[in-house]
């Protein structure tokens, strides 16, 4: 259809201007014709292209977005407002979100520094995680579909190729070929597996690679054979393009781009965590590479990919629950051995039944306590001392197969600090003990843990103090 002229009225909406003319849809800035209906935010109307030369995927994609967008919520998606009659004039009206797409950073003459790449990547990962928590996978993440708001957070756009676990997958029913944008599509999507949250992690990895190097890791293939190469191909290490990149950033990017979904981050929250804590990213051979694998390694990958059987995708929320970020609040002073032992036992049990979980060990210092009890010691020395204590506490834990990091926070309100940490890092499970705040504050023991449990955005386990059996026996007390 022709572009709508400014001033055109459509079902009570007045068109102001066309703000985007894409290959699948036109997007207009619109407003309610009646001022009394003003929702309090700017509006955009999306109308799919439906000329004779446009493919059937345009209207199918519109139906997918019409099905999914109204059920999504949160700050990382535009708010749904209205939809038009599919037979008369299909359209979607949604919130217009101000900001710049990721393409803005890619169009700059110089590549952003590692810190900026990490900030943008963390914003994308947190937005994707919010989507996955609603059992939806975007499956078409690319620079034009990621909007960065002035506050640095990300909003995801265009859900025409998405998949929601609670609704029919119209694209899988209608299309018989890989569905996605060639430069960013994940290997499992190429063979028709949809709905895996780790496909979005792969796409974020492609964007991180391009932000860091200015190149696409797999190019922009136009044939099915070209797409299938990513089932076994390993891209050139980012540091081969840009030697000044830190190893931790390359480690993160290449983990996102692993051909097998199981080798990537188990959730977008894990990815965001590493991007926000680069100093604690364990560097493997991936991060140290300066050249890609040789012919023999690629041949082995090709043979493995040729015989691989792809399984249906796990439910996004199930995947997140199986591999949560587990946080433990470890006391730092006036603490009994029983508390430290009980906390460690609880963490060990939780890790044992969650093979993909990562552990964040956190201790909170009171500013007044640190200034009196540690007088004469520099802040850096104090920080290192408490990091060493956390590592010593965690040393007996069965950490094989688990990522672990250590964090020393400073706050006058310990409970609030724990809650904010859990919120900011998308923690799935928090463990804390009765003596988390020190023995001199025991009279508050009934209020602080309860407040944390009430306000925390995740499951909270309160651990009762308990000495090991051999110590109980030695003290003459029967268990």
UniProtKB/TrEMBL annotation:
Gene3D superfamilies in the record: 3.40.50.12370, Phosphorylase Kinase, domain 1, Transferase(Phosphotransferase) domain 1
Species assigned in the record: Paenacidovorax caeni
Pfam family, one: Pkinase
Domain of life from the UniProt record: Bacteria
GO MF annotation list: ATP binding; protein serine/threonine kinase activity
InterPro entries xref list: Kinase-like_dom_sf (IPR011009), Prot_kinase_dom (IPR000719), Ser/Thr_kinase_AS (IPR008271), UspA (IPR006016)
Name of the protein in question: Serine/threonine protein kinase
Annotated ranges, domain Protein kinase: 13-276
PANTHER family named among the record's database cross-references: MITOGEN-ACTIVATED PROTEIN KINASE KINASE KINASE 20-RELATED (PTHR43289), SERINE_THREONINE-PROTEIN KINASE YBDM-RELATED (PTHR43289:SF34)
Alphabetical UniProt keywords: ATP-binding, Kinase, Nucleotide-binding, Serine/threonine-protein kinase, Transferase
